[in-house]
Specification:
Elements (H helix, E strand, L loop, with lengths): L3 E5 L4 E2 L2 E2 L1 H14 L3 E3 L12 H15 L6 E3 L5 H14 L3 E5 L8 H14 L4 E5 L1 H4 L5 H7 L5 E6 L4 H11 L4 E4 L5 H7 L3 E4 L6 H12 L3 H17 L7 H9 L16 H13 L4
Parallel strand pairs: 1-4, 1-10, 5-6, 6-7, 7-8, 8-9
Antiparallel strand pairs: 2-3
Helix pairs in contact: 1-2, 2-3, 3-4, 4-6, 6-7, 9-10, 11-12
Length: 290
């Protein structure tokens, strides 16, 4: 259902407030550059630092700006099932085309707990759901066997797989690939994930290089493997640079250097160290982005 280069879009701030104008401009830019979908309020969108009203407003602005031209998959995950239900219901009411739900974090549920969490949301909210497995942040790894159980629900349509483990990705696609879309959650795995049968990426790097990220997927779909591979290697320095500090610090800094947003974060995230910022500038200059 969802495929291609889907940007895990940043949430711009200005003087401590959500910068709606900059956000709308970013979405227009993405659509013009060929981005296939938008995820507001994900990890890159600093969702953990947004209060409920901010969270809902970011989704609402994304839906209005996209205006059905490309799908909006709203981040609605939480470590409380009741809270995830509340946010997911609201996202549907606001007009989101889908919901991205990260595995519950900190409380470290069992595989059965993960299954029951997603089952509860899938049965309660009639919206396409994309699971999100990122154990490096959540401290729990949702196993392919658990995803296979969840793939039985008609509105669980995909998974953002961000383990970086190609063996796990391969097993996941083998078990579930004909029932749900397996989507890369790490930019450096997008090309190999496509080779395994993945359907695209929910991307950090696409924030700053949307055309190349979209063109890589388009080339792959058209069977132009050599072009897709060339774009993979072109994007690789940017992929690496986006994680020289905690995401989304580098990508927001890059967008500020590109003149797209203010260089502003919500604590506990803060500005890059001067040394890393100079490294980032060098990568951006080499890529022709600044």
């Amino acid at each position: 259902m969802f495929k291609g280069s889907i940007v895990a879009i940043v949430t711009p701030f200005k003087k401590g407030k959500f910068d709606e104008r900059a956000y709308g401009d970013l979405i227009e830019w993405h659509i013009s550059q060929g981005t296939h979908g938008i995820v507001p309020c994900g990890t890159t969108g600093e969702a953990p630092t947004l209060d409920f009203e901010e969270h809902y407003r970011v989704i609402e602005v994304a839906v209005k700006a996209a205006n059905k031209r490309i799908p909006v998959i709203a981040g609605t995950g939480a470590n409380s099932t009741d809270e995830a239900l509340t946010i997911t219901r609201k996202a549907k009411k606001l007009g989101a085309d889908g919901a991205l739900l990260v595995t519950p974090y900190y409380n470290k549920p069992t595989q059965e707990g993960l299954y029951r969490h997603y089952k509860a949301v899938a049965e309660a909210v009639d919206i396409p759901i994309v699971l999100y497995n990122v154990p490096g942040r959540t401290a729990v790894n949702m196993l392919p066997s658990t995803v296979a159980r969840l793939a039985e629900f008609k509105n669980i349509v995909g998974i953002k797989e961000a383990t970086g483990d190609m063996k796990q990705a391969s097993e996941l696609i083998r078990l579930c690939g004909d029932r749900i879309s397996v989507i890369s959650g790490d930019d450096f795995t997008t090309f190999p994930m496509l080779a395994l049968g993945g359907k695209g990426a929910i991307s950090v790097t696409a924030n700053i290089a949307p055309k190349d990220a979209a063109d890589m997927f388009n080339a792959w779909e058209k069977g132009n493997i050599s072009k897709a591979r060339k774009l993979h290697y072109k994007l690789e320095p940017l992929n690496n640079a986006m994680f020289i500090e905690t995401n989304p610090i580098p990508v927001k800094t890059a967008l500020a250097l590109m003149g797209k947003i203010e260089e502003e974060f919500k604590l506990p995230l803060c500005e890059m160290s001067p040394a890393n910022k100079e490294k980032l500038k060098g990568v951006l200059k080499n890529a022709g982005l600044i």
